[in-house]
Every structure is written in structure tokens, then in C-alpha cells.
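To close the chapter, one final illustration. This time we ask the reader to focus less on the individual chains and more on the assembly as a whole: which components sit near each other, and how the overall shape emerges from the parts.
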Amino acid sequence: MSAPLVLGIESSCDETGVGLVRGTELLANQVASSVDLHARFGGVVPEVASRAHLEAMRPTLERACEDAGVDLSEVDGIAVTAGPGLVSALVVGVATAKALAVSLNKPLYGVNHLIGHVAVDVLDHGPLPSPAIALLVSGGHSSLLRVDDIATDVRELGSTIDDAAGEAYDKVARLLGLPYPGGPVIDKAAAQGNPRAIAFPRGLTAAKDLERHRFDFSFSGLKTAVARWVETRRRDGEDVPINDVAASFQEAVCDVLTAKAIAACEAEGIDDLLIGGGVAANSRLRALLEERATAAGIRLRRPRPGLCTDNGAMIAVVGGAAMVAGVRPSSLDIGVDSGLPVSRIVV
Ligand code: KG4
Ligand code: ZN
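The assembled structure is written out below.
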């Protein structure tokens, strides 16, 4: 039997994503972003995102079907992000998916957004190795996961105790006067700067922290250190070397993420490392991970940057994996869960 054809719908934040996937084959991946509407607020405004999803959902769905040359009646299952994310944004995708599931009489899978980020690499590099360690770094989450089965068995080894990595990028960009989202702009500025110009702190890497927080992250101290450094320069009437600050901040983030991901592989005796989430698009993170993974004899899987940020295809991948694993479809009365834990793959 060929792999099921799955429609994936994503609406947890500011991207309306609709993807069509058959097994590891990407047929369509349409994303409509409302990022420009949020830029002047310096972050995503839930009501604005919700309204934008409502307007974009139908045309995005139509474009995806057109791209794939697929009629909705051919779809075998419908997957949708059920959480975590913004409630008012999630409900638009879930309502759409339920309506399609009922009208087409197809099974519904309410899936975990974070698992989508980890699973999406199958579209670039084929079935996932098992077991694997996953470094998940997005705007709302930063975690190290042990993935034994993407549809049924994912365990969190550690996570951020304060800000997520992407959130730190966004906040540091804001204090440097750079636009939202901060990740891509800092990535670009950092390429022109000196990563060793300023020694910013590496959170939770001191010997005393490693006992309790070996695989946890903390980025809020780093953000404060950048803010203090910038304030002092401004108070003294000196220019702020934005590229050097960006490069030094980025080096601190990537150094910690990379070191802990490799340490998790070593502690679990696992030689396969996956990365996912918006920050996995970061050029320095990708390069440093490759360097350190190679040195440690670890195989690294990096989805192309365009699949790292939010999209519907990654949600379709999880739905397809659940169908193949025989996971029971979701009930038609599922709700959304803004704080859905990463271990709950299908709700
Ligand atoms: O996974 P994602 O698209 O949405 C969430 O699930 O949160 O991640 C968005 C985050 C934002 O914080 C954004 O600044 C960050 O990913 N990001 C990056 C890059 N591209 C996006 N961070 C660093 N470097 C990048 N190139
Ligand atoms: Zn995401």
C-alpha cells in the first residue's frame, strides 16, 4: 500500500500554513504570513493573527491543492496543529480541519506543533533514524528531546527555564532597534561582526548548574547582559557596534545549544542528531553543529531553512506518521491546547 496522502494545516502563530504530503514526499507547502501586520508591535498580536488566519485559510488551501494537483476528495487524512500556540490562532486551523474532516469523511489528527518541527526533515532526507536526539529551537520553545518514534514516543530531556532561543533573538533585535522577527536580521548582521568582540554569558553551563540543569537552557541572563552592555555604551555617548553585538550574542546562543545537544547524544549513547524550529534556520547554528557533530562522530540532520519555520507540511508529516503507526484518529470534539506538552504527539 502506498503512503497516505495527508493534508496538514498550521495556524499556531503568525503563519497560515497548508501542506500536502505523501509519506516523505512533499507535494505542496503554501504559507501566508501575517508577520508584517505585527512588526510595528514588536511581536505577534493574537487577535490580529487570528483574523489574518481566517482571511488567508481558504486561499492558502486552494493554492496548496493547485500546486500538488490534488483534489481534496483524494486526501486520506487531515492533520492540524492542536497546540502549543496562541489559542485564538489555533482555533482557526482546528475549526477548518474539523469542517474538512466532516465534509470529506476523512480521519482527523490533532497534532503537536513541536513534533512537526522535529519530523519535517523526512521531506528532505527520508525516514528518521531511531532513536535520535532532537534539538528543537523555535520562538516559543527550546528543548532537547529523545525521539524513539516520531508518532508515538518522544521524551523531553531538558528545556528552557526562561526565554526560548528565538524569543531571545527577537528581544535582542528589539533592543538593538532591529525589526521583528529578530532571528533572520541578527543572523545577517552577525555575519558582518566579530563573534569574539564581547564575552557574553553562556547560561546554565557552569559546573554547579550542570548537576540539575545539564540539558536545560536559560537565555534571559544573556538577554539582560546584552541590554546592560548596550545601555552602558549609549550612556557613555559611544556608538553601539550592532554587528559585533549581534555576532557575540549569536555565538553565545549557538555555543550553548550546540554543546548541550552533543552532550545529550553522548549521554544517551545516540549518534543521530536532528534539528528543527525557526532558529534551526540560523546559519551559525547550522555551521557550528556540523563542525562539532563531525568531531564527535555524530550524524546531523538539518532540514532546509525554508522548512525550519512554521508550515503546514510539517504537520502533515506527523499526521501521516500517526496513520502509518495505527494511532487512533482524534475525536471531532478536540479543543486546542496552548501549553500542549511535547510528549503528547496526537491529541
Ligand atoms: O518555529 P518558528 O517559525 O515559530 C514558532 O514556533 O515559534 O520560529 C520562529 C522563531 C522567531 O523567534 C525567529 O526570530 C526565529 O525563529 N528565527 C531565527 C532565524 N529565522 C527565524 N532565529 C535565528 N536565526 C534565523 N535565521
Ligand atoms: Zn514553530
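The beta strands are 5-10, 15-22, 25-33, 77-83, 108-112, 132-137, 142-149, 153-159, 272-276, 299-301. The pocket of zinc ion (ligand 2) is lined by residues 113, 117, 138, 277-278, 310 (CB under 6 Å). With these observations in hand, you are ready for the problems at the end of the chapter.
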